[in-house]
Amino acid sequence: MFERQRGEGDLGLDFPRAPSDAISVAATFWRTVDRRHFLSNGFAVSAFTTPVTRWLTQPADAATAHHGGRRVGRTDLTELWHAADEARLWDSKFGGGNWKTSSVTECLRLRAAPLLSGTYTEAIGTELFSATAELSRVAGWAAFDSGRHEEAQRRFVQALRLARAAGDVQAGAYVLTTMSLQTMLRGYPREAADMAEGAYERAKHTAAPRVLAFAKLAEARAYGRAGDTNAAGAALGRSEELLASIRAGDRDPEWLSYFTHARLAADAAEIYRDLGQPQTARAWNAQAAAMPSGRFTRAVGIRLSVLAGTHLQDGDLEQSLQVGSRALEVLGTVSSTRAHGYLRSLATELEPWKKDSTAVAEFIDRTRRELAAA
Q1: How far is CA 233 from the centre of its chain?
Q2: Strand partners, 64
Q3: How far apart are CA 113 and CA 23, in angstroms?
Q4: Cα separations (Å) of 323 from 37, 266, 288, 319?
Q5: Could you tell me which of 6, 302, 265, 275 has the C-alpha nearest to residue 154?
Q6: CA distances for 222 relative to 45, 73, 229, 365, angstroms
Q7: Contact 213/264 with Cβ under 8 angstroms?
Q8: What are 208-220's pLDDT values in tens digits?
Q9: What are φ and ψ of residue 277, in 5° steps?
Q10: Which letter does DSSP use for residue 353 in this model?
Q11: pLDDT tens figures, 164-222
Q12: How far is 131 from 124, CA to CA, in rounded Å?
């Protein structure tokens, strides 16, 4: 029996227990995605309660075959994985609002949704669900990065449910960790820490070290935002240990290859900025310099914004403005509401010095003018 739907307004937030229902809901969600318009960009942490609880209770379904439309083959799966790889690259360089990243929703609507309703074996179905889960996660992150928080939540929920349908615990842990990051950045650090810790604990005997390290990093970021120095340090240390444990030949998912020690260091700088320890933050920042801005444009711009903030914490206006200007230059080509938010926060923090410093006033004006144009 198909689970009773809560209404059109809740489509995408459902987390059906039965795999067949989950697949049907996902196909309907992505098939009709262009016909739904959300009036609010608000974030509701309660929307994640049922999906997270059900995933933690049972993170993997048994393999499922399906008889419906045309037969799904290996070429179809390759196309979906390629689309996800390309979308991640463009997202990192140009932000979630760029046209290429946004086109992933078209791939989900025109390609993935019909395939979910097609004919496939258990083996093909398992990979189809994993690929569609990753596409859904990428689409969710793009929406979040662009400030469309309600859309992002619905897409993340679909990604998490499809990962469970695939029996892919590590993919589910990665999606849940991504949901934790959204939750933390929307102002719910304690809830975010619980989600990241849950992802780690549920997957620690199944997932690859890099996946577990990413979950621990998200947990550390949440505790840093909550002001819990000890918990943040412990989670960050465990993340670093897991990354260091990776050896050649280990099963290591390609979709998380961007998460290196340099990326961990960049996030660690933000953690210690949040904890009010600017010198420690700058020590971590020095380890993050290996990230090339041409490949990780948004991440580098965010890191520079954070670094500018640490100089401001020390009262060094000159260094803060110098680094802030570099961040503004890097992020000038990035369509990311989230990344631009770091610069806007820096401009707000500089306000007390505006009356006494022409340089500060000029930076604030330039920042607001250029971000508005972007």
Answers
A1: 22
A2: none
A3: 9
A4: 39, 15, 15, 6
A5: 6
A6: 14, 41, 11, 31
A7: yes
A8: 999 999 999 999 9
A9: -120, 75
A10: G
A11: 999 999 999 999 999 999 999 999 999 999 999 999 999 999 999 999 999 999 999 99
A12: 11
User: For the purposes of burial, counting CB atoms within 10 Å of the CB of 334, is it exposed (0-12), middle (13-18) or buried (19 or more)?
Assistant: buried
For 290, other C-beta atoms within 10 Å of its C-beta total 12
Q: Is the pLDDT of residue 99 over 90?
A: no
Radius of gyration of the chain (CA): 21
- Among 20, 17, 3, 51, which Cα is nearest to 154's? 51
Distance CA 307, CA 302 (A): 9
Round to whole Å and give the CA distance between 59 and 195. Answer: 14
242-292, pLDDT tens digit by residue?
Answer: 999 998 878 899 999 999 999 999 999 999 999 999 999 999 999 998 888
Which residue from 53, 48, 221 is spatially nearest to 149, judged by alpha carbons? Answer: 48
CA atoms of 28 and 151, how far apart (whole Å)? 15
CB 320 within 8 A of CB 309: yes
- Give yes or no for a contact between 322 and 339, defined as CB atoms under 8 angstroms apart: no
Encode burial over 148-180: b for 16+ CB neighbours within 10 A, e otherwise: bbbbbbbbbbbbbbbbbbbbbbbbbbbbbbbbb
d(CA 196, CA 151): 21
- Give residue 345's region: left, alpha or beta (phi > 0; psi -120 to 50): alpha
Question: What sign does the dihedral 116-120-125-127 (CA atoms) show?
Answer: negative
Pinpoint the alpha helices (H) of the chain.
Answer: 19-31, 49-57, 74-94, 99-102, 104-107, 113-116, 122-145, 149-165, 169-185, 189-203, 209-226, 229-244, 261-274, 278-287, 297-313, 317-331, 337-350, 358-373
Q: Side-chain half-sphere of 202: how many Cα atoms within 13 Å?
A: 27
């049907």: which residue's tokens?
24
* DSSP of 172-241: HHHHHHHHHHHHHHTT-HHHHHHHHHHHHHHHTTTS-HHHHHHHHHHHHHHHHHHT-HHHHHHHHHHHHH
What is the spatial distance between Cα 275 and Cα 225, in angstroms, rounded to a whole number? 7
Rounded Cα distance, 64 and 47, in Å: 27
